[in-house]
Automatic annotation (TrEMBL):
SUPFAM superfamilies: GHMP Kinase, C-terminal domain, Ribosomal protein S5 domain 2-like. It comes from the Eukaryota. It catalyses: (R)-mevalonate + ATP = (R)-5-phosphomevalonate + ADP + H(+). One of its GO terms (biological process) is sterol biosynthetic process. Residues 292-345 form the GHMP kinase C-terminal domain. It is found in: Cytoplasm. This is Mevalonate kinase. Signal peptide: none annotated. Belongs to the GHMP kinase family. Mevalonate kinase subfamily. Keywords: ATP-binding, Cytoplasm, Kinase, Lipid biosynthesis, Lipid metabolism, Magnesium, Membrane, Metal-binding, Nucleotide-binding, Steroid biosynthesis, Steroid metabolism, Sterol biosynthesis, Sterol metabolism, Transferase, Transmembrane, Transmembrane helix. Pathway: Isoprenoid biosynthesis; isopentenyl diphosphate biosynthesis via mevalonate pathway; isopentenyl diphosphate from (R)-mevalonate: step 1/3. Residues 131-211 form the GHMP kinase N-terminal domain.
Length: 381
């Protein structure tokens, strides 16, 4: 049997960093996906006692015998229920780490260890010790702030849950899981994100699971419905960054200048709320007017992020390049490099976009165009 699943990446439209200090943030799904194919062998197949993980984009493959997994993973399977997501204990994580280390991951790819540990945890927790081949491909650049790890967790969990459902009569094409299974999927994906990131906010996996947009404030996530089309040019500066250090830097600046930084955070909160209101409004306002408002708010948000000290020369280069063509950009995510969003208004010509992309790529950057606020996790049999 073969099950396919896909889950989108995400962008932060407004609210980066300030959200840590109680302000509102708005995040949205993008139509760049991570794909998972799960193949469960027939009993007559040879070598059907192994679990294989293929990372196609990296040309890497890892294989474990089912007996080795049963021997190596230290938890009582009778205490694990697919319908009740639970956290991976430190003892279990240590035993999984041993199984990962046995794979001799190339030194250059050692950062994959937490992702492979997450794979083993989610797989054995949801499906148990069943042989299979799992193939993963992605359109999302790793570690760029576009939610690649969450898309991985969500797509994998979707495939695992779908493989154990009895209803496989949906016919051809992609379709969403029902609301109950989506909620279950999101909870499991969050547990996977905890293995990779330690203390994730839950924003990335929720956007990837449900799609469209969400508003996040003080731990509360509200799903939004967009009533306007939005298209962005996403530029990956390819500059690595230390998210933890950037977050700490903003907090330290707040300690030094508490009153000023509180004004900054309050301003960001207002911007995020206004963005959310604009994209949800059904008022008889033209798309062009809405886009102009979003453009101004993006510009203001970028200025506030610069005042927090989280911009970077590579981000400045993208902003100045797009500004020459009367396009507005802002960083998305932690900053310090990573990705930059550029609003592509409905009326912008394809020629202008091509010219901007050419200039950015000549600077060594990587560009994608993406629609904002699309579908969440989907499966296909």
């Amino acid at each position: 049997m073969e099950v396919k699943a896909r889950a989108p990446g995400k962008i932060i439209l407004a609210g980066e960093h300030a959200v840590v200090h109680g302000s509102t943030a708005v995040a949205a799904a993008i139509d760049l996906y991570t794909y998972v194919t799960l193949r469960l062998p027939l009993h007559s197949d040879e070598n059907n006692d192994r679990l294989t993980l293929q990372l196609k984009d990296l040309s890497l493959e890892f294989t474990w015998s089912v007996s080795r997994l049963k021997e190596g993973i230290a938890y009582d399977s009778s205490n694990v229920s697919r319908s009740t997501p639970s956290s991976c204990s430190s003892q279990t994580l240590k035993s999984i780490a041993v199984l990962v280390e046995e794979q001799n991951i190339p030194e250059a790819k050692i950062q994959l260890s937490s992702g492979i540990s997450t794979f083993l945890w989610l797989y054995t927790s949801i499906l148990g010790f069943i042989p299979a081949t799992v193939i993963i491909t992605t359109e999302l650049p790793y570690g760029s702030g576009l939610g690649s790890s969450a898309a991985f967790c969500v797509a994998l969990t979707a495939a695992l849950i779908a493989s154990s459902t009895s209803d496989k009569t949906h016919g051809e094409g992609w379709f969403s899981l029902d609301e109950t299974n989506l909620e279950l999927l999101n909870k499991w994906a969050f547990e996977g994100e905890k293995i990779i990131h330690g203390k994730p906010s839950g924003i990335d996996n929720t956007v990837s699971a449900y799609g469209n947009m969400i508003k996040f404030c003080s731990g509360e996530i509200t799903r939004l419905k967009s009533n306007m089309p939005l298209r962005m040019l996403i530029t990956n500066t390819k500059v690595g960054r230390n998210t933890k250090a950037l977050v700490s830097g903003v907090s330290e600046r707040k300690v030094r200048h508490p009153e000023a930084m509180n004004y900054v955070f309050n301003a960001v909160d207002s911007i995020s709320k206004e963005v959310a209101a604009i994209i949800q409004t059904k008022d008889d306002i033209s798309v062009t007017e809405k886009e102009e408002s979003v453009k101004e708010l993006m510009e203001m948000n970028q200025g506030l992020l610069e005042s927090m000290g989280v911009s970077h020369s590579s981000i400045d280069t993208v902003i100045q390049t797009t500004l020459k063509h009367k396009l507005t950009s802002k960083l998305t995510g932690a900053g310090g490099g990573g990705c930059v969003l550029t609003l592509l208004p409905t009326l912008v010509s394809g020629t202008v976009v091509e010219k901007v992309v050419e200039e950015l790529e000549s600077s060594g950057f990587q560009c994608f165009t993406a629609s904002i606020g699309g579908k969440g996790a989907e499966i296909c049999f």
